[in-house]
Design brief:
This protein is an alpha+beta fold. The longest helix is centred in the N-terminal third of the chain and has 19 residues, at about 55-70. The protein is elongated and about 75 Å long. The two termini are about 45 Å apart. It is about 20% helix and about 30% strand. The protein has a 6-stranded antiparallel β-sheet, with helices on one face. The chain has a 3-stranded antiparallel β-sheet with strand order 1-2-3, with no helix packed on it. It has a 3-stranded mixed β-sheet with strand order 7-6-11. A hairpin with a 7-residue loop joins β1 (about 20-25) and β2. The chain has 2 domains: about 10-70, no CATH class; about 85-235, no CATH class. It has helices at about 55-70, 180-190, 210-220; strands spanning about 20-25, 35-40, 45-50, 85-90, 95-100, 100-110, 115-120, 125-130, 135-140, 150, 195, 230-235. It comes from Pedobacter alluvionis. This is PRTRC genetic system protein B. Pfam families: Prok-E2_D.
Length: about 240
């Protein structure tokens, strides 16, 4: 007995029974049910029996709904796409994914004197939770590895650390969003908002950012990779 050790400190969060629900049903073909709520004393005995109240029913329904949302949040609708690099569904969730170079619809405020329209954008790396978005540029369309160098995203409204200023855009990512809904929503929020200004004098490209986008919107040219500026980060630095 001298070899016994107290290992309770190794346990995780402990949960203690506080109450119980007992369901009663008759044997009729049209079965009727009745629910009774019991409190538990410190010895685990059922006490204070009473019909389940409306308030207690609402609390139960809320708890079940929250659990259902947690189970569906960031759950893929099918096989996970090869563009997904990392998923963490805890709390506000975090997803890291990439998109290939493509033409995107873009919008600019009038003072920039850049016409709205479609333009080629580089391959991109996206990092987002339910409230915040970070974007980076990639040099090619291949799936990034931990050693892949990240470049500054060549857009207005993006800080030097990749954080995106969404301005007055109302971000509303549901807690029940599937993985595909989550990534699609963030891409739409980013490209359907108006690009307006450089953040804290951070010029994200080699040369003039305004002239770059004027040229790309006036032509069908591919995004020129040589204007991208390398950041001091690789993909491994942002993996969680």
């Amino acid at each position: 007995m001298d070899n016994l050790r107290d290992i309770t400190e190794r346990f995780g969060t402990l949960y203690f029974p506080k109450s119980a629900l007992v369901f009663y049903a008759n044997n009729d073909s049209n079965r009727d049910c009745y629910v009774e709520h019991f409190d538990l004393d410190r010895n685990g005995n059922l006490i204070n029996a009473h019909p389940l109240t409306v308030r207690e029913s609402n609390q139960l329904a809320k708890s079940l709904k929250i659990n259902e949302e947690k189970q569906s949040f960031l759950k893929p609708q099918g096989i996970i796409g090869t563009n997904i690099l990392q998923i963490d569904p805890i709390h506000n969730g975090v997803v890291i994914w990439f998109t290939k170079a493509m033409r995107r619809e873009m919008f600019f405020v009038e003072k920039l004197e850049i016409p709205n329209g479609k333009a080629s954008v580089p391959a991109m790396l996206w990092v987002a939770n339910r409230n915040k978005l970070y974007v980076y540029a990639l040099k090619n369309n291949t799936r990034p590895t931990e050693r892949t160098l990240l470049y500054h995203a060549p857009f207005f409204n993006v800080y030097s650390d990749g954080g995106v200023c969404m301005g007055t855009v109302n971000i509303s990512i549901k807690k029940s969003s599937t993985l595909e809904e989550f990534t699609e929503a963030w891409e739409n929020y980013f490209f359907n908002s108006y690009f307006s200004h450089l953040m804290e004098n951070h010029n994200p490209v080699k040369g003039n950012c305004v002239n770059l986008w004027k040229k790309l919107l006036a032509t069908a040219a591919l995004f020129p990779k040589d204007v991208l500026l390398a950041s001091n980060r690789k993909l491994k630095d942002i993996l969680r």
